[in-house]
Write a structure and sequence with these properties.
homodimer, five-stranded parallel beta sheet, coenzyme a biosynthesis (chains A, B), nucleotide-binding (chains A, B), transferase (chains A, B), Cyt_trans-like (chains A, B), ATP binding (chains A, B)
Chain lengths: 158, 158
């Protein structure tokens, strides 16, 4: 199957890792994975500062190569939420609970263009040590690390 | 991965076949598939008459064996929408666009019980020849067959 997935991946945390791993699991060796990576202009709509595209690109490549996968893949620069997903022929989209609505929009817009809709695989929420979601914003605020480990404020102030 | 999927499967049409096939695709050979089949009391809430459990069970087994799969599986009798999905440890649920809300409820109720949420794989809509969805109701009305082929009214009245 040909699978698409997308994001800003900044910083690339364990939730992103599951998202990317699942895309490759679903693809099967004769399939392909397209990973959309938001460009700096689009990514900078976020509430916190974003690392430059090139740095995020390198982290993403490091994450993919660590999977030791035989599945072909490519990274696509995203100028908006959709990239080539509205016009490309592919089979399934991998999303988080947070980005599921984007997946639904993609199918809605594909239907309007006369394209077949795609399957949507929503991964489970990846929780931090405190039972709340891992998110880039929480990492940026210094509450947790990329694996969801609580950062002790006491240690930081010493 | 351990996968769950459920339905009334009456009559078992091409949309159901994709649902069941995808559950086995996701499971991987070391995984397992649990297929929930609604019992007659629960199934009879539908707007149209339902074939007895035993007949639906046999059709379901025929569909599964036609996949020639090595993945272990079992059929669970469903007395309600959820069956054992609220308490069992499993990895992902396969749903259609129509049953996606049930999947969301399952995760919501699992969280309330302190169980980890599961991944939800929503298959694409399977369309009939006329571009509209294949559904049991449309088949029951005699509009289409189980493969989505339009049934010509003229032929029927001859």
């Amino acid at each position: 199957m040909k699978i698409m997935v997308g994001g800003t991946f900044d910083p690339l945390h364990d939730g992103h890792r599951l998202l990317i791993k699942r895309a490759f699991d679903l693809a099967s060796p004769d399939g392909k994975v397209i990973i959309g990576l938001t460009n700096d202009t689009f990514a900078n709509r976020k509430v916190h500062p974003i690392h430059p595209y090139n740095e995020r690109y390198k982290d993403l490549v490091r994450c993919i190569t660590s999977l030791n996968t035989d599945v072909p893949w490519e990274i696509e620069e995203l100028h908006d939420q959709y990239g080539s997903s509205l016009d490309t022929d592919f089979d399934a989209l991998v999303v988080s609970e947070e980005t599921f609505p984007v997946g639904k929009n993609i199918n809605h817009l594909r239907r309007e263009r006369g394209k077949p809709c795609v399957e949507i695989h929503m991964i489970r929420c990846v929780l931090a040590e405190d039972g709340r979601w891992i998110s880039s914003t929480r990492i940026w605020r210094g509450e947790i690390d990329i694996h969801g480990k609580i950062i002790q404020k006491e240690e930081k102030s010493e």
